[in-house]
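User: Reviewer 2 asked us to show a designed sequence for the structure in our supplementary figure. I'm pasting the structure tokens here. Could you produce the per-position amino acids so we can include them in the response letter?
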């Protein structure tokens, strides 16, 4: 069951190859510019945080944010276009591929785009003097799971959306706050206990913490908690996305 989802993945990959440059620039632009502006600009005015420079501090977090932006935007704007304007979903469902395989293929494809963006950001870190540890090999599957999570959230929005404007609510009220308040630019441990609890309720916070730990090989005792949160949320949100896509396409 659900074995044909890779056909959807393959179809999207072949289409993506035609405009790969524009796609990568769009997804990596904001994290990369923040790395330049905050790391080199503001970073020179800020002392070390948690034993590292400010540039070293924000680098791994921006890797996680690149995955979030790339995967969620793909299943919002990309998937919604395939669902409505292009009517690609109707054509796919005329084949042996079922709704569940279609939705899962969309999620896995978006997560793949997310991991590509994350790996490119990781590859640029040495250009800024940030040398990752061998632990980054363990970071790669966690970034992919993060991609599954945000791809699923984006597909949930697509299943509920009536038009493109609907995505502005999700981007402004969810994605942007996650980017700003998930510990990418400041240490959560230095915040008020109430703020710490709020930050830990945000899914990106756990991805940022794991990225920072594994990027520099500074593994904290709470890493299993961060990993478990990402795994549970990924599975749950993927299930919800598949249910909602099925309801939209069947009813």
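Assistant: Here is a per-position design you can include in the supplement:
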């Amino acid at each position: 069951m659900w074995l044909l989802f890779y056909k959807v993945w393959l179809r999207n990959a072949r289409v993506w190859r035609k405009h790969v440059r524009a796609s990568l620039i769009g997804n990596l632009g904001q994290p990369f510019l923040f790395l330049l502006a905050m790391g080199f600009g503001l970073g020179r005015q800020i002392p070390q945080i948690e034993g590292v420079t400010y540039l070293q501090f924000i680098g791994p977090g921006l890797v996680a944010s690149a995955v979030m932006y790339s995967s969620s935007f793909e299943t919002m704007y990309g998937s919604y276009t395939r669902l409505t304007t292009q009517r690609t979903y109707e054509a796919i469902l005329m084949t042996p591929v079922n709704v569940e395989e279609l939705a899962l293929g969309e999620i896995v494809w978006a997560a793949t785009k997310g991991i590509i963006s994350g790996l490119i950001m990781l590859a640029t870190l040495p250009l800024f003097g940030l040398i990752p540890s061998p632990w980054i090999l363990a970071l790669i599957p966690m970034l992919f799971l993060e991609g599954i999570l945000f791809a699923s959230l984006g597909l949930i929005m697509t299943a509920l959306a009536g038009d493109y404007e609907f995505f502005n609510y999700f981007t402004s009220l969810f994605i942007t706050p996650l980017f700003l308040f998930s510990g990418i630019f400041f240490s959560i441990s230095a915040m008020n206990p109430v703020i710490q609890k709020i930050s830990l309720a945000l899914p990106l916070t756990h991805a940022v913490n794991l990225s920072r730990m594994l990027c520099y090989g500074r593994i904290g005792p709470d890493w299993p908690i961060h990993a478990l949160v990402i795994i549970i949320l990924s599975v749950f949100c993927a299930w919800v996305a598949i249910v909602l896509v099925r309801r939209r396409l069947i009813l």
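For the response letter, you might also mention the following. Residues 12 and 240 are 22 Å apart (CA to CA). The chain has one domain: 5-250.
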